[in-house]
Each structure stands twice: as structure tokens, then as C-alpha cells.
Task: inverse folding
């Protein structure tokens, strides 16, 4: 089973692969320059999106807490109504008692219900205070959400404008990059991507200029330069790890 390449079954030489790597690097560098125009906009948009999402979650939580307090308030109010009804019934029964023991027993029941009412009223005050705090927090979160959403809309518009202006160029470069990638096997592409992610300016493939690596400017020995020009094997700078290719004039 053929596992060589994804390159339309063309067996490219190492020299051709290295040339394709260099072409890919130049294309990616052009895309990098286009992305520089965006500056911090993509990150700013992402941060604002996270902030807006967080604020919406916070609003949902606060609204749920306010609803819970409202439910508890209704429950305590029902308890007060029930307690008052029991007190009225007990007082009515006191008018028809046969002895002091029955009267005192009903009196204790009335006292107990009065305590229940006092406790429920205390809870109602606590719920009212908590609801007031929650509503203030809700108003503050809504205000912040409005501000952050407005910021996000502006940043998105700026980013969309830049992407719209550069879309055709990026599309063309992406097509060229695909052609170059087709000449490079997965192992080399993986190495290229790994180096590119680690080095400054994303330069994974650099030329030899004035007998030195144009990435880190360390001197390249003559024999190593000769091997680079031959292009029979992939050679990386022993100082910075970048892939080395001959200068453009060569």
C-alpha cells in the first residue's frame, strides 16, 4: 500500500521539496503581514465575546436567584396567612372551652403560631434586602453588558472590514500555499509547522546571506553551505534550528 505522499503520486526530489518549503514560507510570511494589519483585533474580539458571554451567564444567574427569592417570599407569606387563620380558629375555640387546661393548651398553640409569624416576617425582611441587592447587581450587569456589547460591535465591524478588504488576497495566497504543500511530505510539513510556531516572526525557512544564517546571523561553515546549495538533504541551523536554503540569488 502506497503511503509516500498526498501529492498526486508524484515523487518529488528533496531539492524540489526544499524549494517548495521556501515558497511556502514566503507565502505564509505574506499572510502574516496581512494578519499584522488586524493587530490585536482578533484577540480583542475574542476577549469581548468571552466577557459578553460571561455577563449573560451572570444575568441568568442573578435572575434565577431573584426568582428563588420571590418564590420563598410567597411561601413565607402563605405561612403567615395560615398561621393567622389558625390563631383566629384557636381564639374562637377558646370561647367554648370547658376548663382551664383546654384554654391554656389553645393559648400555647396561639403563642406558637405568633412565633411562626415573627420568624416568617424576619425571613421576609431578609428576602427583601437580598432582592434589593440582587436587583442592583442586575442593573449593574445590564449596564456593563450594554457597554461591552457596544465595544464588541465596533471591534467586530473593524475586523470584518479588514478581512473583507484582504479576503481575495488571502484566498489567492491560500491557493498558492496548497500547491506548495502538495510537494512536501507530511513529515517535513510537520517539522516546518513546529519550527514556525517557535521562532520569531514565524520564519522557519531562511536563506544563507553573507555566509550566515539570516534568521540568527550566525556563521555557516563553507562545507555546510555547499551541502545547502546541493539540496540533497534538509539542513537546519545548528544555532536557531531554522531550515536553511540558498540565497535568492542562487
Result:
Amino acid at each position: 500500500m502506497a503511503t509516500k505522499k498526498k501529492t498526486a503520486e508524484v515523487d518529488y526530489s528533496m531539492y524540489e521539496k526544499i524549494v517548495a518549503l521556501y515558497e511556502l514560507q514566503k507565502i505564509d510570511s505574506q499572510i502574516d503581514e496581512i494578519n499584522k494589519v488586524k493587530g490585536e483585533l482578533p484577540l480583542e474580539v475574542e476577549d469581548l465575546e468571552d466577557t459578553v458571554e460571561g455577563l449573560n451567564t451572570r444575568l441568568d444567574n442573578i435572575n434565577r436567584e431573584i426568582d428563588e427569592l420571590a418564590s420563598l417570599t410567597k411561601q413565607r407569606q402563605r405561612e403567615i396567612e395560615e398561621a393567622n387563620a389558625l390563631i383566629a380558629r384557636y381564639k374562637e375555640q377558646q370561647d367554648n372551652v370547658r376548663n382551664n387546661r383546654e384554654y391554656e393548651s389553645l393559648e400555647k398553640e396561639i403563642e406558637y403560631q405568633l412565633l411562626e409569624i415573627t420568624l416568617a416576617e424576619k425571613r421576609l425582611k431578609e428576602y427583601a434586602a437580598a432582592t434589593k441587592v440582587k436587583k442592583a447587581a442586575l442593573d449593574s450587569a445590564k449596564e456593563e453588558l450594554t457597554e461591552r456589547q457596544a465595544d464588541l460591535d465596533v471591534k467586530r465591524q473593524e475586523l470584518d472590514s479588514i478581512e473583507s478588504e484582504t479576503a481575495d488576497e488571502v484566498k489567492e495566497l491560500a491557493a498558492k500555499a496548497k500547491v506548495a504543500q502538495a510537494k512536501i511530505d507530511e513529515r517535513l510539513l510537520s517539522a516546518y509547522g513546529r519550527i514556525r510556531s517557535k521562532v520569531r516572526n514565524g520564519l522557519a525557512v531562511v536563506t544563507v546571506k553573507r555566509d550566515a544564517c539570516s534568521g540568527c546571523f550566525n556563521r555557516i561553515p563553507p562545507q555546510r553551505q555547499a551541502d545547502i546549495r546541493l539540496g540533497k538533504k534538509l539542513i537546519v541551523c545548528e544555532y536557531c534550528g531554522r531550515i536553511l536554503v540558498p540565497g535568492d540569488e542562487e
In short: DSSP finds five helices and three strands in the chain.
